């Protein structure tokens, strides 16, 4: 069954004609990123939904301290950008023409144009621009034949939610990363996609699929 063309370039073209900014700015992060009252802690474990524009981890980090991030992606809830296979480090397989060309057209409209599609990002604080691209290290590499042919991605029911029901936390692949905080504040997660601007909001995040069980701990020096 042929894969449908992504709608990103069409929406990007329309927004450009309207003269509206697409990438999320520092100003509107204060609207996107919300801290839940009474939820802050020094460590955190939470379910991350790839559709979220700015998911609160429930954790407060401190400047100068290094944090370890473990992301568990159950097999039943593997990541994809619509029908493009992905993981916390970005797309898993090289894109073929014409999809590669269409996605290249919209590269500048990503929230972080110089970083890969679907790269896991973290930010500290609801204001300012303290943002990090997590260097993702999978515990197990995919076999070389994984992308030949590219895995088929089934579209999930629109009512799917995260955390998923009846999913073993220990299942699936594990991805590790770390970062050193440059400031104090609440910690948020999202993937690098088109969205967050005054026109699109979460429109192009709605076709994202996948969850991850994220555990964040402070490194012991």
Give a summary of the structure in a few sentences.
The protein has helices spanning 8-18, 29-32, 99-105; strands at 44-49, 55-61, 66-73, 80-81, 84-87, 90-91, 120-124, 130-133, 137-138, 173-180, 185-191, 208-209, 211-218.
Element layout with pairings:
Blueprint: H1 8-18, H2 29-32, E1 44-49, E2 55-61, E3 66-73, E4 80-81, E5 84-87, E6 90-91, H3 99-105, E7 120-124, E8 130-133, E9 137-138, E10 173-180, E11 185-191, E12 208-209, E13 211-218
Antiparallel strand pairs: 1-13, 2-11, 3-10, 3-13, 4-5, 4-12, 5-6, 7-8, 7-11, 9-10
Structure description:
With 221 residues, this protein is mostly beta strands. It has one domain. Helix content is 10%, strand content 29%. It has three helices and 13 strands; from the N terminus they run ααββββββαβββββββ. The strands form three sheets. The protein has a five-stranded antiparallel sheet with strand order 1-13-3-10-9, with no helix packed on it. The longest helix has 11 residues, at 8-18. The radius of gyration is 17 Å and the shape is globular. The model is unreliable at 1-7 and 9-22 (pLDDT under 50).
Question: Helix count, per DSSP?
Answer: 3
Report the structural category. mainly beta
Which residue ranges are poorly predicted, with pLDDT under 50 across at least 5 consecutive positions? Answer: 1-7, 9-22
**The biggest beta sheet, please?**
5 strands, antiparallel
Name the helix and strand elements from N-terminus to C-terminus, one letter apiece: HHEEEEEEHEEEEEEE
Shape: globular
List the strand order in the largest sheet.
1-13-3-10-9
Helix content: under 10%
Mean pLDDT: 81
Spatial separation of the terminal alpha carbons: 53 Å
Radius of gyration: 17 Å
Give a count of the beta strands, DSSP E runs of length 2 or more.
Answer: 13
List the domain count as a whole number. Answer: 1
As a percent range, the share of strand residues is 25-35%
